[in-house]
Fold this protein.
Amino acid sequence: MDKIRIRGGARLKGTIPISGAKNATLPLMAAAFLTDAPLTLTNVPKLRDVAFMADILRGLGVSAEWTDGCALGAGGRYVLHAAHLSGTAADYDIVRKMRASFFILGPLLARAGEARISLPGGCAIGARPVDLHLKALAALGAEVDLSEGNVVARASRGLTGAKIKFPLVSVGATECALMAATLAKGQSVIHNAAREPEIADLGRCLIAMGAKIDGLGTSTVTVEGVSSLSAATHAVLPDRIETGTYAMAVAIAGGEVELIGTDVKLIEALAKLLGKSGVAVTPTPAGFVVARNGVCPRAVSMETQPFPGFPTDLQAQFMAFMATAEGSSHIKETIFENRFMHVPELLRMGADIKIDGNVAVVKGVARLKGAPVMATDLRASSSLVLAGLAAEGETVVNRVYHLDRGFERMEEKLSGVGAEIERVQG
Ligand code: UD1
């Protein structure tokens, strides 16, 4: 398995192109089930999770073709066409590899009148139930049963619009309800909908396909069902998690870098904290500049929250940053119950972190020390790369598999701004 080797201490200077968002691309790909016409997505990142989702779609008869090359940061053009479905079932062997594959349930049910998908089970960052996805589909009139570890959902006479009130904010369940409701008969109102930008992006694509949706970006989304959707072309929005990760790479390593093809509005909660810690963030026509020149960053506390709050997917990276800041910070994880797995690895690099329930108390140290480390999930892996940029000596991040799931050519983007980082083929 490949590794990433980093020699810490280099300041970063130059530009980093930001790719399209993984977490928008995956549900957008699932939306291809909603029509028998082609769906063309542009600015698609070339990631392992995207390739994996394409395999799932192909297994059910959907064609998925790249129609152009993919220069670094340029984004690919992906044409998905579900002209005829060859099946309606996705097995455990497929779903266990990527939890987001469960997102095909709603659109597949809406299109085919039935769907059978293995329950995803737990994952490294917690139990992650799917009860809210199932309740939303049941509210829309589906019969939902569990059989031998599979969810079997049926709506032979189609779905019917309904009021769906989520007891807690869920990105995936909101996307599931939104996609399914587009083809339901009548009006659906989704209350307590998640407001993540990826949901509005999905909504914009569905509207381009002919869906009638109001309230995107708010917590009440209204959908007037239509009888069919048609062909569309949609550009995937920039990846705010990649954006935030590189902003923190500059914060931790020092230097001045322009992140291009993105927007600071996508990471406002982080930008405010960067400002408080002494890192300058300045919008530009192409994106924004992050600069930390000379000053030692100050510790600031934060807690993760649904959008527009601080994203859980940036918590691990923020902790690596705080591990080298001056003073103490409290980092509270409120979304997932087991998302501090980067902590033992950061401790091995000399960080001073104590866990108390869902709060990590981080005391900044003058210098982290390079070490061989291993990550068990995607965002944790990126936090170790960031720590490596600031550490004295060499850090080797093992199991780069996780990183490749969600960051497009991270080592190329970072070496392009002067980091001493390389991939070692394993
Ligand atoms: C999505 C993102 C993931 C991000 C997360 C939170 C994708 C592909 N993944 O995951 O990167 O970390 O949002 O921003 O977009 N929950 C339930 N029942 C459900 C569904 C969720 O109890 O049916 C709980 C979860 O356990 C969690 C919370 O709701 O505690 C939020 O999870 P959710 O927003 O659904 O995350 P995902 O959509 O899985």
